[in-house]
User: Fold this.
Amino acid sequence: MKPKIRRCGVLMHPTSFPSPHGIGSLGDEAFSFIDLLSQAKASLWQILPLGPTGYGDSPYAARSTFAGNELLIDLRTLAYEGYLDVEDVLFHPDFPSGRVEYGSVRNYKEPLLEQAAATFIAEAAKKERETYQQFVKENQWWLEDYALYQVLCRTYHDSRWFEIWPKKVRLREDTTLHQLKKEHAKAIENIQVQQYFFYTQWANVKQYANKKGIQIIGDIPIFVAPDSVDAWSHRDLFKMDEDGRQTASSGVPPDAFSDEGQLWGNPVYDWEAHKKQQFSWWIKRIEKTLEMCDIIRIDHFRGFAAYWEVPKGEKTAIHGTWMPSPGKEFFSALKAHLGEELPIIAEDLGVITEDVDELRISNGFPGMKILQFAFSVEQGKLDANNTYLPHNCEHNSVIYTGTHDNNTSRGWYESLDEQTGDAVRRYLECPDDQVVWQLIRHMLLSHAKDAILPMQDWLELGAEGRMNIPSTCGVSNWSWRAENLHPVEWRIERLKSLIELSGREGI
Assistant:
């Protein structure tokens, strides 16, 4: 009988890499991180969505589901290639080392990226120019709209196309768009070149990771941002009126954690329109992500069974309705296009109903298990049947100490009440100072086929290392950065030893 492959990985978004330019990039630090994973015998690297971020800087509210975040482009590589002066890269503001200050980073990097793209347009060698032209040809179906959209965001000083932009632009009147493309041709090409830089650098990073035996887990938010090129250029695929404004928004209903639920505000899909187009937009979305990654985690997977739709004008999510989604038809179409074995992880956290489980299980997708959700205590006793406890995890699942939406494991443990903290220590059989490593150990020894720990847990950081607090828009969200990519040797050796002991070397 063929043994089941078991793997271990680390969650680390590229923005969190250390670098001299205020934000992580796809340069030396990306390759150093891959070397670090290889040294520890980890075979998975999980990231967050790679799209260009807008207001709030959340990768889950990107301005495009197909474009890459230009702020991740490595300036040093562009200087090596002759598109920037070395002085431009060597002399930079004194950025904080532990956090991304997005405004300062944009002020510094965006002019340099425009300068590099302009130099490329003027001076690129014939071979490089031909490669670029091939990139544009292959990606024209999304690239031209994205480049124009970014130009218009700057022109109107606002990304809210549905409120601020002139009506003919908002509704994409043909003659108007043709004129805008002609008028802004240089700026549009500049943005297309920047996307070429991003995709070229990312392809090199992915190739290096795969060569080292490491697969990359990407991420797709189920919904798109309202102020995105996707919503603007594909209004027919969303529930919008003839004036381009949403008639309904996404969210989740009230629950034990929120009396008003959560009103996310994303446009919801007109699934009938998607069916008429044979889910072509969604298929392209999955296809494009699989070019960039090896595995996809789909955020809010339950939305493919049913989603919470809130009517226009509501201030909270209370008065919403569960609406059916054609998940079975969609995944059937996706399999017909990409094959039966889809490398998808279903984010199935929260209140999950039988139809969601059936959709996930029938397609063979692993669900997610979060250790921080495992320690439910009632009347002083740990619930040994909690499905998130390592001994209860099924093989076809991916177990995490925590995700980008959780506190770090150390921060989480330090916030527990005395009773729950005692249950954690008794389950793990360890004192306070070993809780994080014992969580990692039990996660790796679980039956789950894949086990992922955030980089912050490898470093045993406290709450100061938290990546995101859901339903907030604070300056600390999405901004954490590692001080360096050289953990003390014992941390590398300890994780390596646990990976070997638990048979998670991925081979």
About this structure: DSSP finds 18 helices and 14 strands in the chain. The mean pLDDT is 95. The two ends are 15 Å apart (CA to CA). The CA atoms of residues 63 and 228 lie 4 Å apart.
